[in-house]
Structure formats: structure tokens, C-alpha cells
Here is the input.
Amino acid sequence: AAPPLAMSLAFLSKKGFHTATLRNQERVWKAEQAKADEDRKLAELRKEIEDERQVEELRQMQESAGLVKRSERLDWMYEVPGGGPSAEDYLMGKAAELPKGKEDVKAANSSSAPGALWL
Here is the structure.
């Protein structure tokens, strides 16, 4: 006969929190894999940041030595593409001047051609 202690603990293997169940082992394995993936991504991100830092340090050293001219890298973001109206003209409501060769668009807007409402 089995000792009374062993029989009283036999129900534990059926509980959801028991560590020997396959479901719990799978949960632990998935959590470990997710942690390993996250650690790998963080290491890759750290490496990228370090590489960018080194490139920036080299560029600054070249600029300070006079080998490379310093460039304003974000100026292109604030330039108006195609030479449109200035910000002041736009804000004041000044009518935009159409470049030469755009008369056909004006004519299409005023015509009753199919799709003219969508131009």
C-alpha cells in the first residue's frame, strides 16, 4: 500500500500551477525564447547605436581637422519643393502663380470634360 502522504499529494500533478505539466513547461520555454529574442534585439540595437556613435565621432573629427565641410543636414526638409510660394505669402493668402505650361490644367478645371471635377 502507498504511504498516506504520497496519496494525498497525487492530485498536485493535475493542478494548473504544477511545474511538471507540459502546458507549464511549454509556457516557460516560450517565455525563455521571447526573452532570448528580446535580448538579441537589444544587443543588435546597442551595436547599431555604437556604430552610429563611432561614425558621428569620426565625422566630427574630420570636421574639426578641416577635412570635411560641415553640412546642415536638415535644411532640405524646410525648403519648398518646386520653388512654390514662400511661407509668408502662403500665410497671407496670396494666390499661387502657376508655372508656364500649366494652362491645360486650368482649361481642364473649367471644362465639362469627364473627371474635371477631380482635378
Summary: The chain has five helices and no strands. The longest helix spans residues 22-65. Residues 29 and 35 are 10 Å apart (CA to CA).
